[in-house]
């Protein structure tokens, strides 16, 4: 998406091919796409198109979100298991195994499912449950959702590759498609995962917990929506082992689905606004508002900034902060940035 040339935002096009295409166009300054991030590097890193064996260890190749999730989940479940195992006799309800029940109770508390099949029955256990429900909700919201989003992005890539398989599209085309329809593909992926989790949970409850298909589906819906009536739950030892993983995955998956739907709706409204702004006729009032330096003429950069501001993508405060950085780098106050400006601006920092 970016140009291979570096330079100022506004400049004469130097590419011979592009120059040939604009020979008959009115002469003037034009905007070149900035080289903010090399697209080939991004494609290779994010989509797995980079060639050559990796020299990093397996642990270092794991995404930071998953390392963070593993650390927090280990601490949360480890501490919770120890605490609720020690006060296990102060929990009333259907019990199977002391350690398993403690882990199961932690997961049910963290996801706010709250079946009621295991409930605190003393002052200490109730206070512990209050502490773990708040910390568990914060953990799910801040940490697990990020890891789930990263995992869904990877599945999204597989989906896009499958859709473009017959078209023999390259990594650049695939990446552009992902950038354009990112949220739509995420909704599709998470919806498919959600269906698989619902079907898997229903089948497990029907076969292992011996519930009817209706009751099994009813329990699944009550669980993933964190409704948790409690009349149907996981009561066997095998069921609670399954529930530890399934409840955590299914509740987060549903939350991510609703999040993507909301973001997709907001994106659709934003695109409609952009289309309206780009098709609206420019007036003298707009021309005056776009004239940032007040010289009576609107340059390409001023026009771009004005349109972006109308679209809600930037604000006047954003422009002010960027201009402050520009003025700080423009040491010779020439109104342009050069290599000497950058070197002079960095000189005091290197001397320190």
Question: Helices, strands, pairings?
Answer:
Layout: E1 10-11, H1 16-21, E2 30-31, H2 39-47, H3 58-61, H4 64-86, E3 91-93, H5 98-110, E4 118-120, H6 123-163, H7 171-180, H8 182-207, H9 213-224, H10 237-279, H11 284-290, H12 300-310, H13 316-329, H14 339-351
Antiparallel strand pairs: 1-2, 3-4
Helix pairs in contact: 4-5, 4-6, 5-6, 5-10, 6-8, 6-10, 8-9, 8-10
The CATH topology corresponds to Helix Hairpins
Largest sheet properties: 2 strands, antiparallel
Number of domains: 1
State the order of secondary-structure elements, H for helix, E for strand: EHEHHHEHEHHHHHHHHH
What is the helix tally?
A: 14
Beta strand %: under 5%
Tell me the helix content: 55-70%
Pairing-aware structural class of the strands and helices?
A: mainly alpha
Uncertain runs with pLDDT below 50, 5 residues or more? 1-29, 36-59
Corresponding CATH architecture: Orthogonal Bundle
Query: Cα-atom Rg, whole angstroms?
Result: 28 Å
| Overall pLDDT confidence | 76
Tell me the strand order in the biggest sheet.
1-2
From the spread of the alpha carbons, the general shape counts as elongated
**Could you tell me the number of beta strands?**
4
Measured distance between first and last alpha carbons: 38 Å
CATH class: Mainly Alpha
Protein name: Two-pore potassium channel 1-like
GO molecular function, one term: outward rectifier potassium channel activity
InterPro entries: 2pore_dom_K_chnl, EF-hand-dom_pair, EF_Hand_1_Ca_BS, EF_hand_dom, K_chnl_dom
Subcellular location: Vacuole membrane
What report would you give on this structure?
The chain is mainly α and 352 residues long. The protein has a single domain (18-270), classed as Helix Hairpins (Orthogonal Bundle), CATH 1.10.287. It has helices spanning 16-21, 39-47, 58-61, 64-86, 98-110, 123-163, 171-180, 182-207, 213-224, 237-279, 284-290, 300-310, 316-329, 339-351; strands spanning 10-11, 30-31, 91-93, 118-120. Helix 6 packs across helix 8 (182-207) and helix 6 (123-163) packs across helix 10. The two termini are 38 Å apart. The model is unreliable at 1-29 and 36-59 (pLDDT under 50). It is a multi-pass membrane protein. The chain crosses the membrane at residues 66-87, 99-118, 124-144, 185-205, 241-262. Pfam families: EF-hand_5, Ion_trans_2. It is found in: Vacuole membrane.
């Amino acid at each position: 998406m970016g140009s291979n040339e570096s330079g100022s935002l506004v400049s004469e096009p130097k590419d011979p091919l592009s120059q040939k295409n604009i020979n008959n166009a009115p002469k003037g300054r034009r905007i070149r796409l900035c080289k903010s991030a090399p697209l080939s590097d991004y494609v290779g890193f994010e989509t797995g198109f980079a060639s050559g064996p990796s020299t990093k260890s397996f642990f270092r190749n794991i995404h930071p979100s998953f390392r963070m999730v593993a650390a927090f989940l280990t601490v949360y479940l480890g501490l919770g298991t120890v605490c609720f195992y020690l006060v296990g006799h102060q929990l009333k309800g259907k019990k199977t195994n002391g350690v398993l029940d403690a882990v199961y109770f932690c997961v049910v508390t963290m996801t706010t499912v709250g079946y009621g099949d295991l409930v605190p029955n003393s002052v200490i256990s109730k206070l512990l449950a209050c502490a773990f429900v708040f910390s568990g909700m914060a953990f799910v919201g801040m940490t697990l959702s990020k890891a789930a989003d990263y995992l869904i992005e990877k599945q999204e890539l597989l989906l896009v590759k499958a859709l473009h398989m017959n078209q023999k599209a390259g990594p650049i085309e695939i990446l552009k498609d992902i950038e354009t329809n990112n949220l739509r593909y995420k909704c599709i992926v998470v919806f498919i995962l959600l269906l698989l989790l619902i079907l898997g949970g229903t089948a497990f409850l029907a076969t292992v917990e011996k519930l009817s298909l209706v009751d099994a589906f009813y329990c699944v819906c009550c669980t993933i929506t964190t409704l948790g009536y409690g009349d149907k739950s996981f009561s066997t030892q095998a069921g609670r082992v399954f529930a530890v993983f399934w409840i955590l995955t299914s509740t987060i998956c549903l939350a991510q689905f609703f999040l993507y739907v909301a973001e997709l709706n907001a994106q659709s409204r934003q695109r409609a606004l952009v289309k309206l702004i780009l098709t609206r006729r420019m007036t003298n009032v707009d021309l005056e508002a776009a004239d940032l330096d007040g010289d009576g003429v609107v340059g390409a950069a001023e026009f771009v900034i004005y349109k972006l501001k109308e679209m809600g993508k930037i604000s006047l405060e954003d422009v002010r902060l960027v201009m402050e950085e520009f003025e700080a780098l423009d040491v010779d106050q020439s109104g342009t940035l050069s290599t000497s400006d950058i070197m002079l601006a960095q000189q005091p920092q290197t001397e320190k």
